[in-house]
């Protein structure tokens, strides 16, 4: 307790003024903390002087059955309020003076291990315990208080009940009382558990209840365990076990098996062949009449005039077998079977089960092609391997998919392995494909015979004539497409070039090849035209709209004159030049060179005008002059920024001296180079063969011809004189008389 003078001290503190850091002064009372040291001036107390408790025989040792409480007014958490409980005495002291034990700190009273073994020998009368509570913890000093505990020993009533039988689906109010348990000791709490978990509960008086309907098919038995516990949830004794048996009611009809795929039997199956077995299930108790199922065939009914049923049913086992009535391939028959519990007795439950039976066909039909002759099919000889040649289709009249699986093979006409087959076994379609390259020279045609047969073994008659098909393939000879002398063409044209100017000539790479026809494509401006036969490309009109520095690309197409489908093409790129006035051209040195005709693999190096110090230095752009003939006969290819390479564009050019104009430009300035080229016949070493001139002192050609003519005239004159003389002499001999002719002497 706080003394009154301490309160007066707190009230008599005067008001003081304090100056804060910012210079302000505050007035008023200020708190003063005073710590008052606690003294052990309070005596612990029991809430009651006498306690009464019941102890049941069979209580476990060390399990508290009574909890003592005491209070102390001293400051909590100090030694002054640290309480300890002790048993001071036990009366009577038989059969053992230590029958009980008191936990010093918690104050929980329990039977000691020695007392547990002696409890059965205990007196019927109560035990009286004198207990003490003392503060100051375990110290000898301190205040104390006492109380009396009367403990009565009672006979144990903790015994398990008999098994309980509960009907499933019981129609009663819930929760429904089913049993009672009792712990004869005091301060008891009951706890219940169910294995497996079920709708059961226990109240504070030990009454057991079922809280909802039970289902015997879901769970036929339960094991209930009930514990008697103290306030701390500690078990006084071993739990009681109670068996709950759920009795069965006929509340479940037979359940048919889930519908499965149709059951297939061969069409020629003999009577007695097993078809299937129906196994309906009843969720009621096994072995009881509620789950005793019998079967009866409802359909199909026997046909009128038939020898018997198509199917027979065993009423006990549910086995379905083949009957005597005939069946046909492809039939789908629905079997309806009534399954009844209670062995078919009146009042039982039943369900109708259904099974579909398919009458399957045997493999008695061979596959056949829908078409026995295919073709002729024309294929070019350059067609790629893997190309589809033909698709053949075969059919099989059997119903069973396994009997329609087919296998294909090439029987005749594939010695070289040129053809192959691709198919899916269950498709009925086979693809004839090319495996190797065709050759018109080796074989201009092929006759391929394909045969089909079942994968499964065939029953009955063998394959007929429709099991083969013949594919006729004709090989087309392929001509190579025409080839041009260049992969692409380029021409440099001033924008002022007039219509009709020859730009270049497109020629075949082989002059002896088949004749070609030439065409232009992508000529969107219509500036160009090409001669279909010669391949000469001209300007079709003035190049109006063309700008210097622009390029214009068209496509030159060459077609075989006899086979238009054979064609090739090349790009023609036109470079437009500025059309400089003639006066703007700066003359440059005239160069002289020679080239051979027919064309050989050499040309002329053309240099820019950089050697002249008065002219600008490169880099330069080189182009042929705008003369169409020059652009037709010559080709100019830039080598670098200072040189270009001049060659003949045609295979043959007339041998004589040519002056080729070359336009050189740089930064808007243009020059014209006149390249003098002597085109001549050359020897094998590529040297020009020149004509030999008249040697000094030798006659000229005219004088030589005159001398020859004079000599021939003199010879002719002498010959005329000789022949005239001979003719006159002969005439004189003929005019003489005969007797004047001298006779030859006789021999």
From TrEMBL:
GO BP term (any one):
homophilic cell adhesion via plasma membrane adhesion molecules
What keywords would UniProt list here?
Calcium, Cell adhesion, Cell membrane, Glycoprotein, Membrane, Metal-binding, Repeat, Signal, Transmembrane, Transmembrane helix
Q: Which GO terms describe its cellular component?
A: adherens junction; catenin complex
Identify one Pfam family in the record: Cadherin
Transmembrane segment boundaries: 704-728
Q: Which GO molecular-function terms appear in the entry? A: beta-catenin binding; cadherin binding; calcium ion binding
> What CDD domains does the annotation carry?
Cadherin_repeat
Topology in the membrane?
A: Single-pass type I membrane protein
- The signal peptide annotation in the UniProt record is 1-18
Question: Which InterPro entries does UniProt cross-reference here?
Answer: Cadherin, Cadherin-like_dom, Cadherin-like_sf, Cadherin_CS
Please name the PANTHER family in this protein's record: CADHERIN-16 ISOFORM X3 (PTHR24027:SF424), CADHERIN-23 (PTHR24027)
Its name, as the record gives it, is: Cadherin-16
**What are the leading ranks of the lineage?**
Eukaryota, Metazoa, Chordata, Craniata, Vertebrata
């Amino acid at each position: 307790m706080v003394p009154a003078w301490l309160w007066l001290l707190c009230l008599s503190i005067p008001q003081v003024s304090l100056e804060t850091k910012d210079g302000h002064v505050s007035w008023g009372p200020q708190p003063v903390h005073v710590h008052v040291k606690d003294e052990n001036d309070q005596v612990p107390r029991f809430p009651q002087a006498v306690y009464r408790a019941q102890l049941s025989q069979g209580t476990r040792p060390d399990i508290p059955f009574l909890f003592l409480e005491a209070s102390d007014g001293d400051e909590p958490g100090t030694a002054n309020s640290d309480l300890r409980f002790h048993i001071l005495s036990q009366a009577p002291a038989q059969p053992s003076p230590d029958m009980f034990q008191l936990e010093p700190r918690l104050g929980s009273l329990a039977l000691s291990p020695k007392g547990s073994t002696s409890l059965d020998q205990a007196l019927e009368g109560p035990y009286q315990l004198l207990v003490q509570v003392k503060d100051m913890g375990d110290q000898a000093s301190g205040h104390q208080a006492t109380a009396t505990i009367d403990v009565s020993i009672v006979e144990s009533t903790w015994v398990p009940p008999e098994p309980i039988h509960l009907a499933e689906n019981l129609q009663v109010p819930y929760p429904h009382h089913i049993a009672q348990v009792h712990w004869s000791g005091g301060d008891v709490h009951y706890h219940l558990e169910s294995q497996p978990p079920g709708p059961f509960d226990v109240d504070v008086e030990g009454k057991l209840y079922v809280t909802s309907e039970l289902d015997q098919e879901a769970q036929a038995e339960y094991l209930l365990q009930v514990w008697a516990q103290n306030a701390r949830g500690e078990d006084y004794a071993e739990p009681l076990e109670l068996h709950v048996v759920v009795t069965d009611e006929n509340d479940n009809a037979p359940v048919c098996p889930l519908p499965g795929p149709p059951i297939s039997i061969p069409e020629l199956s003999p009577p007695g062949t097993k078809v299937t077995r129906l196994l309906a299930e009843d969720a009621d108790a096994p072995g009881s009449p509620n789950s005793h199922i019998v079967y009866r065939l409802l359909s199909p009914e026997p046909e009128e005039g038939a020898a018997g049923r198509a199917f027979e049913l065993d009423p006990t086992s549910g086995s379905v077998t083949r009957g005597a009535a005939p069946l046909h391939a492809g039939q789908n028959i629905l079997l309806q079977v009534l399954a009844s519990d209670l062995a078919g007795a009146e009042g039982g439950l039943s369900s109708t089960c259904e099974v579909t039976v398919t009458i399957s066909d045997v493999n008695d039909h061979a596959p056949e092609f829908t078409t026995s002759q295919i073709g002729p099919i024309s294929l070019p000889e350059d067609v790629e391997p893997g190309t589809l040649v033909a698709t053949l289709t075969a059919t099989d009249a059997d119903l069973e998919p396994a009997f329609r699986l087919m296998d294909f093979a090439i029987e005749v006409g594939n010695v070289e392995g040129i053809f192959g087959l691709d198919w899916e076994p269950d498709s009925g379609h086979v693809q004839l494909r090319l495996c190797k390259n065709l050759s018109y020279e080796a074989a201009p045609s092929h006759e391929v015979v394909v045969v089909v047969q079942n994968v499964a073994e065939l029953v009955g008659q063998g394959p007929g004539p429709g099991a083969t098909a013949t594919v006729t393939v004709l090989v087309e000879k392929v001509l190579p497409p025409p080839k041009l002398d260049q992969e692409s063409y380029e021409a440099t044209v001033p924008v002022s070039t007039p219509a009709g100017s020859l730009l270049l000539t497109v020629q075949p790479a082989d002059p002896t090849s088949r004749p070609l026809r030439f065409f232009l494509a992508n000529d969107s401006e219509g500036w160009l035209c090409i001669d279909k036969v010669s391949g000469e490309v001209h300007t079709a009109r003035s190049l109006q709209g063309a700008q210097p520095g622009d390029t214009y690309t068209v496509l030159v197409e060459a077609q075989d004159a006899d086979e238009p489908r054979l064609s090739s093409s090349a790009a023609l790129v036109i470079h437009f030049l500025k059309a400089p006035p003639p006066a703007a051209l700066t003359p440059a040195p005239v160069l002289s060179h020679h080239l051979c005709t027919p064309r050989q693999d050499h040309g002329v190096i053309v240099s820019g005008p950089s050697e002249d110090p008065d002219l600008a230095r490169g880099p330069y752009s080189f182009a042929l002059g705008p003369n169409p003939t020059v652009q037709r006969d010559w080709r100019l290819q830039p080598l670098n920024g200072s040189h270009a390479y001049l060659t003949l564009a045609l295979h043959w050019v007339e041998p004589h001296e040519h002056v080729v104009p070359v336009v050189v430009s740089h930064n808007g300035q243009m020059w014209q180079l006149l390249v003098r080229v002597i085109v001549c016949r050359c020897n094998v070493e590529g040297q020009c063969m020149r004509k030999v001139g008249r040697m000094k002192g030798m006659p000229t050609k005219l004088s030589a011809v005159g001398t020859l003519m004079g000599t021939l005239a003199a010879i002719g004159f002498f010959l005329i004189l000789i022949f005239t003389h001979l003719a006159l002499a002969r005439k004189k001999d003929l005019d003489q008389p005969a007797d004047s002719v001298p006779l030859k002497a006789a021999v």
